[in-house]
Structures are given as structure tokens and as C-alpha cells.
Amino acid sequence: MPVLVGTSGWQYRDWRGVLYPERVPLRLWLEHYAEHFVTVENNGAFYRLPGREVFAAWRERLPAGFTMAVKASRFLTHVKRLRDPAEPVERLAAASAGLGDRLGPFLLQLPPTLRADPVVLAECLDRFPDGARVAVEPRHESWWTEEVRAVLTERDAALCWADRKGRPVTPLWRTASWGYLRLHEGRATPTPRYGDAALRSWCRRIDQTWPRAADCYVYCNNDPGGAAVRDALRFAELMRGLGREVPGAVPPSV
Q: Among 16, 22, 26, 136, which Cα is nearest to 76's?
């Protein structure tokens, strides 16, 4: 199975001249994005969860085989702080179901102030529909326990590997049959680009951790100045150099 490489979001005005030619209007950016990548992480859903009809409209604009990961609403992760998850998870799942076969994993990015509560996490994960893939990105060090690891592993939920400044900010646990990596900020110039050394290290970690039968999702979240686009394309190139299948990731001719 492939390593799916994309970016966290697609509507950044400073990507004109990097990914989007001047002649392409903003309303067609998603279609243009899908000509170059086969996956995207929808970060906008975190700030305001769209209705099912919006997700369905996105599905109609995306080609077969494209995958959209959906970041869970901040109402679930930051307001409710995973508690009483039934209604917000049901609403998230019902809305994003409009994507149909284009729906990828859900991402739960937890607040940096939220301390570990394995019981609450388990209750939240258990509310997702059967077969849903859920990645969890904790950001408080109290989460790095064997109890938390077991909660994730028992549910085939992926610990989201995360990077800042070229270094892992999470343990490199494999808790699921599939993987999820977010690259937030590199140390190369111009900021916040990633250099080859950092990208190669992440490629090796993926190659050494997941067998070729596993799906791995990789999203560059360092969007300023088009850094995410350039780094996603370079990551894909380096991953292919290890003999891994990486669909899409086609450089634009801008």
C-alpha cells in the first residue's frame, strides 16, 4: 500500500506562484491541488465544521482515489476536551460522510494543556463509526504512558507522529496498522522549510516502522510561503528513493 503525501489545507493565498498559477481562480484551487497530490488534510473543519452538503460538494470535485483527512472540530477537542463525545463525534462523522469514498482518517489534535486521561480517550475513540481511522496527536507529555499506548493499540488508532524544528515531539510508537505523520515546522532556510537531512530521517522511520502493505499518511503543515508544497514534493521524492510507492506528488509547472 502507498505512502500518501500532501499538505495540511489547500487555500493559502501565498501559494500563488508556488502551486497555483495566476490564471487559476481560487474557486478551482481544490481541483488544481488534486492534479498534484492525492491527499489533503482538512484543517478548516477544526475551526468550523462544514455541513454534509459541503463535504459532498468537495467529493464531487475530487478524483477517484483522492483522500481527504478531516481534523476534528475544536468543540470536541478543545471545548469539550474529549468529554461527553457522543454528540460531537456523531455530528463530525455524519457531516464528513458526505465525502463518501474520499474520506480518509480523522485527526484528534489535543490541546497542549490537556493532561492524559486514558479512560476519556477510550470513550471518545469508541464513539467513532466502525472502520473509521482515527489519529490522535496529544501535546502534553503526560500522555506518553503504556496505558495510553494500549488504548490506541487496542482500537487500531494511530499515534500521530509530529515534528517541530526537525525533531520528533512524540514517541515513535506504532499503535496501528497504518501511520500518520505531521511536519509542523522545519529549521531550514527560508523558514519554515525542512532540509533534506530532516526529511530523510522521517522517510527512514516510516520505511523501518511500517511494512509496505500499510497505508501511511504524511502531511506538511508548514504552509507559509509555500514551504509545505515544496517539502511534500521533496518528501515524496525521497520516499520513492527508498523503493516505497508514493502516488501523485507531481511538481507543478508554475
A: 136
- pTM summary value: 0.97
Q: Find the domain containing 232 and state its range.
A: 3-241
Strands of the 161-164 sheet, one edge to the other: 158-159, 134-137, 103-109, 67-71, 39-42, 3-8, 216-220, 179-185, 161-164, 167-168
Cell of 126: 469508541
Is 208 contained in some domain? yes
Domain count, the chain: 1
Please indicate, yes or no, if residue 76 is contained in any of the structural domains: yes
CATH code of 92's domain:
3.20.20.410
Per-residue DSSP letter, 139: -
Per-block mean pLDDT, blocks of 10 residues, the chain (254 long):
96 96 96 98 97 98 98 97 98 98 98 98 98 98 98 98 97 98 97 98 98 96 97 98 96 82
Is residue 253 a part of any domain in this protein? no
